[in-house]
Write a structure and sequence with these properties.
The chain is of the alpha/beta class. The chain contains five helices and eight strands, in the order ββααββαβαβαββ.
């Protein structure tokens, strides 16, 4: 198995991949952070689903949508984090593991995911980013570790003001992943790619 892991400040709707993943708190879309642009690109469809009660972002809720060419990715996967006041890093980690299993089961290997900055947990952002990446990779590693031709591509969208956290995150990920698989980690600093495959 090979891994191509990229970090960018680009938004989900700007990412070219098979599927984009949005982690969403329960409540109005415009207050959940990170996907208002995705909602706008889908002509308010996500807001419509929330207003009708079809999908609310309750903890563990999963919704898969076809993008219908409204964004660059083929599919959109929404994963509910529940009510923001009940949030914990354990809930975040559990939801990422579920998402990884969902996507691996669909046979998709080209992923875009937005890791939101959670109010009150800003100092934990780096560790949440590490956890998200490792948990996503692990979901695929189990079934593909012995397949030298399998390439997992993950593009992680983060708020541009947290790009500096990658200084600490990338070495941690390299240390964790190097012993298990061939990997390249790229981060887009001010939209200029820096390659770290040391």
């Amino acid at each position: 198995m090979k891994l191509d892991l990229r970090f960018t400040s680009r938004t989900l709707e700007e990412l070219w991949c098979q599927i984009v993943i949005a982690l969403v708190f329960q409540g109005p879309i415009e207050k959940t952070g990170g996907i208002s642009g995705l909602d706008a690109k889908t002509s308010g469809y996500l807001t419509y689903l929330w207003k009708t009660g079809f999908w609310t972002g309750a903890s563990g809720d999963t919704l898969l949508l076809a993008s219908q060419n409204m964004i660059k990715a083929d599919k959109i996967l929404l994963k509910g984090l529940g009510v923001s006041s009940n949030y914990s890093t354990e809930i975040f980690s559990k939801r990422i593991k579920e998402v990884g299993c969902n996507i691996e089961g669909m046979g998709i290997n080209d992923i875009g995911i937005h890791i939101p900055v959670i109010k009150g947990f800003e100092t934990d952002f780096g560790s949440q980013l590490e956890s998200a990446c490792v948990n996503l990779v692990d979901a695929f590693f189990i079934g593909h570790k012995d397949d030298p031709d399998f390439l997992l591509k993950i593009v992680v969208s983060i708020d541009g003001s947290f790009i500096g956290d990658l200084t600490y995150v990338v070495p941690f990920l390299r240390n964790d992943l190097d012993s298990r698989l061939d990997n390249t980690i790229i981060f887009d600093r001010d939209r200029t790619c820096t390659i770290d495959n040391s």
